[in-house]
Amino acid sequence: MILHKKIGIIGCGVNGLSVAYLLQKKGYHVSVISKHHPFNDSIDPAFASLFPAASVIPHSVSGQNIEELFNTSQAFFNELHQASFPGLSVFRHYELFADPKELPWYKRSMDDFLTLKDFENDFYPTHPDIKVRSGWKFNCFFADWKLYYPALFKKVFADNATLTIRALSADDISSLPFDILINCGGLEGAELFGDDDNLLYRGHLLSILDAPKLKGNNDQTISYNFSPGKDIYATLDGIPQDVYCYSRNDGWVFGGSRQKGVLDAQGNWCGDKTAEPRQDLDGISFPAAILDLNAAIIENSFGIRVQDFPKRAVKVAYRFVRSAENGLRLDAEEKFGKQIIHNYGHGGAGVTLSWGCAKKIIELIES
Ligand SMILES: Cc1cc2nc3c(=O)[nH]c(=O)nc-3n(C[C@H](O)[C@H](O)[C@H](O)COP(=O)(O)OP(=O)(O)OC[C@H]3O[C@@H](n4cnc5c(N)ncnc54)[C@H](O)[C@@H]3O)c2cc1C
With a 6 A CB cut-off, is 361 part of the ligand 1 pocket? Predict the structure, then answer.
């Protein structure tokens, strides 16, 4: 009987917890092993679940069946939203480009997706000097991370799941007391099983604390991603970047950098960097465009001055994206005498795909 199989999960990031949550609902007893405690340990930039801006949009991810995983995930986010799960909201989200841009595949999956046509008269967040030439809007789930992630953690461990804080090495795997081991260990989880595809996208985040939610005409909360073109904001290697602003209960999250690279043996960043101009914020070399473009858009579109909100927090962290040929890994193998199910490499969409991946894992276990 499959319910009697002993199941272990490596990692208590959003993917480990989402799998644990669904397994528990199905009646399985679940043990989670994690190198870090998400709320007690110092912040490791490779522990991606401490950082997501947490839009539910399949950005910066590749791999097989992403559309199916995304649709399943969205359907479950919808159920959670109906059930008032802490921190989940729906915003009217805009994706805006200074250059012509093809419609994204996910237009089929988004509620009330509309292409912007009348750039003179329609409402959309605008920069005073950079014209938007293409764009669209849709209703989008957002997870307010300071509410959503602790609530998920609490739900999983309030029941009978156990959490052990332990850094596993490859030598430990064969002696773990589980029949099935689900690897939600992110970058290090891949390394544990000999996967050396370690490509990352580094991201910078700036929280503007105490700022009010951005509101549109009919009181809907507005969020946006804005791509100003590569002459205005790009990495040193010339990769065009976008900036975004997402509202949270305690203010705004500004972000947008996606710099390609890897970590060396000492954990130092080797890869693309922020192009000039940069700002030094709390000792972090930060792309000035993230603050400057967002400040101009918000003042121009919502009449709010960013400088009126001086309480800020800066972070830099890594999205484990893997190379485009590999992308998200969601499959099973026998290794170290155990059945292993891998679930990593979600890039910039680990929250977005979390429920789709978790449901797929249940299918794999039950088949
Ligand atoms: C700046 C930034 C912005 C982002 N914005 C978004 C967004 O808007 N929307 C979105 O969907 N996604 C976003 N993401 C991506 C998202 O955060 C990640 O995809 C997601 O958090 C990955 O979660 P995970 O559970 O797979 O891995 P992780 O969160 O990395 O968790 C890995 C777990 O494995 C454990 N572990 C590692 N090694 C070992 C070991 N040796 N032994 C035991 N345990 C181990 C760790 O302690 C941890 O518990 C963003 C990421 C960043 C960095």
Answer: no
